[in-house]
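Quick one: structure tokens for this chain, please?
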Amino acid sequence: MSSTTATIQDSNALISQLGLADSVVDADAVTESVRKCAANNVVLPTFAQLANPALIAADVAKGVDKNAPDARNLFRVHWFNDMQGNRVSVPDHVVLPKSLTGIDSPIVVMFGDRFPMITAHKVLAAYSCLVPRVITGQFNPTTQRAVWPSTGNYARGGVAISRITGARGVAVLPAGMSQERFDWLDKWTSDPSDIIRTPGTESNVKEIYDACNEMKRDPQNFIFNQFCEFGNYLGHFEVTGQALASVYQHVAKSMNNPNLRLAAFTSATGSAGTIGAGDRLKEMFGTKIVAVEALECPTMLENGFGEHNIQGIGDKHIPLIHNVMNTDVIAAVSDRATDELDVLFNTQAGCDYLVNRKHVPKEIVDTLQHFGFSAICNVIAAIKTAKLLGLGADDVLITIATDGADLYPSERVKTMARRFNDKFGEVEAAEIFAEHLGTVTTESMIDCTEQDRNRIFNLGYYTWVEQQGTPLSVFEARRSQTFWRNLRRYVPVWDSLIDEFNSRVAKAK
């Protein structure tokens, strides 16, 4: 094969598998999408607007239920919302005190349950994957179904964005995910066949891939694979990265400490979209990037296997969009800790114990209901990181609550029955606090060397080159930070194409 042929094939792979088109590839498909959006009164926000909602008209979604399938809610697909869907100047967040975390370093948590429709920030990932495909004509909503492989929240976000834009969305997720995810999908899909349950639970990502590869044989099915869609990475780099920076700058100003620094960003890897925000923070503040996974399946830590229940963080593979060579620390967290702290944070006995015995301010305790499983995981990882790196009061750690506790009552019932025999009082609360917050250690962590990063990077070969057919040259190019920096050129290009698309929609109405 000539080098020219290989380059052309790699370019096609970047477009077809990774979503990296910078021009219209199918004008007829774009025309069909324009007609569909005009019929549904859809205007697409740019990435610049989602990163800086001050660029969005203040009244664009006034009076619109933030959880309704209304196209105006696309202009709420950003971090600057409160729980009612009102615009705020700084993303909602909480600064966790030493009385809860046991460390001097402040831990800042930015809330994802303020996002519209699905009360989880994965709707941003779904938007970031779909829109570049629509405006370049790679996806045609009049002839194709949008298939969303996920462990829950991304699939829900995809179904929501699909419905709003007039496409048919299909959710693919493990059968063992929380019942609340399926309850939501039942309401948002019109056909039960649009909810595809794959075997297993959070740990069974390959089974999701297998189902999607089977569906891909039908050209009417378009797979939006968040694990290799670079729109996911770029959406978080651009939008989530700037939101985190604004939160940190707000916190730093309120603390009035000239020695303060943003020391670390902790993020469960999942599809590795969110952790992409760390690349922006590292450039801005020199922040260390901490990749978090489940101890029960320590893929990055030990090339391991197993099963866990920290829903939303995946495992057993290294996502193609994970910038592994820019990752500084690996931390593994037990799902027993996340399950049991979820009970502590969401029962009266647990909250009373935190306020009365540990003297955590009630206003802080009240925010803990906005922590889903992965948020709890991220916080524990932040505590571990502070201890590993010897951080102090001048060192801020920041992380994200992907979703809130309202997505896990069915899982909480299981934990209550399995672990506490449906009895949870002060004694049980004290035990849980002592085990999972009072004695956090630096076990199951790696302060990465170049060799560690290369080992983790190489693990991705088996999934992406051998199983999913990614060209080796494309896979290998990701080892260089130049590859990741060059990706950023797509964002302003996509924004220009969005503006052109919206102009055509306006004329088509």
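The CA atoms of residues 44 and 131 lie 8 Å apart.
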